Amino acid sequence: MTDTMAASLAAPGGSTPALLRMFALSVVGLSFLFVLNNYLIFWLGWPGLQNFYAHQGWFGAEPLRTPLSGNAVTLGWLQLASYVLVVLAVIGFVLATPQRLMHVEAARLGAVAAYIVRAAFWAIFIVGLGDAIISFLRVEGLLGSIVGADLAKQLGISRIRGAFVHMPLIGLACIIAYSVRSLGFTWLALLVVVAELQIVIARFVFSYEQAFMGDLVRFWYAGLFLFASAYALVEEGHVRVDVLYAGFGKRGKAWANLLGSLLLGAPLCWVIISLGMWSKAAVINSPILAFEVTQAGFGMFVKYLMAGFLAVFAVSMLIQFMNYFLANAAELRGEPGRPERPGGLNDEPAEAA
Question: What's the pTM?
Fold first, then answer.
């Protein structure tokens, strides 16, 4: 922390709020664009910036063995331009809204993260129940009598079940999350307990146990901890292993939160996103592209979705770190009307003064 930086944040007026808003919104926008381009590259066959740079011979990249075709080159230019356009769009938006306070921007970022987390919660709830029912009917030999032998056979293929069962249910979850504002972590924790309880009762009372029962517990349990992380960050719910922070004053804590978000939190999220999605064999992409399932033949077909939990975790946490960054910058500048919590997930964004 330099004296110049501290003076810039503390000084009234000036361009500092606009620059900080540009930075935070650019980080969030580029993270969304990176995930979108990951889909375009590995699902739709777009070239990606790495291959485009190699084709152009930029930055000393080793030339491709097979040069890109004319259409692929055009798509590469579009992908490159999209990153530039996102940054320019953010700059234009900030310049068009000069009176918007940083804590208002932080609250709006919190609302975006809240929607992502809500959608993820509803997705694992609906997909978990739907896939568990299908797995139960399969293992008991009842699925064919309900949907027909051919469709029952198709639902035993992970790619088919993922594309035609899971994806529509995830779309439904996104619609529900837009209307239902409750995050539901308490209910998800209860569901984990209920799912584990039914395993105990079925095993020790009825001597019945199937692989899908344990898969459902792990599916919901993983979602509970990864999706609730962004909420816990803003609610100060994470454990701080810090012997100094408790003794800081109000401004000292704001500086610690601001610099921690900037230098530790956001880079960690980018490491998870970039390494997890850099190639087909990356830890997030590989299971999703293959619709990977567990070895148990009649277990749930949701293992590939659990790899996607990491992406949801990283993106939602990155948004919340930018929320935290702006909220604590507003604290240092003494902006009026700042909420007690830095953009709590259940709060409606405040209106700009």
Answer: 0.86
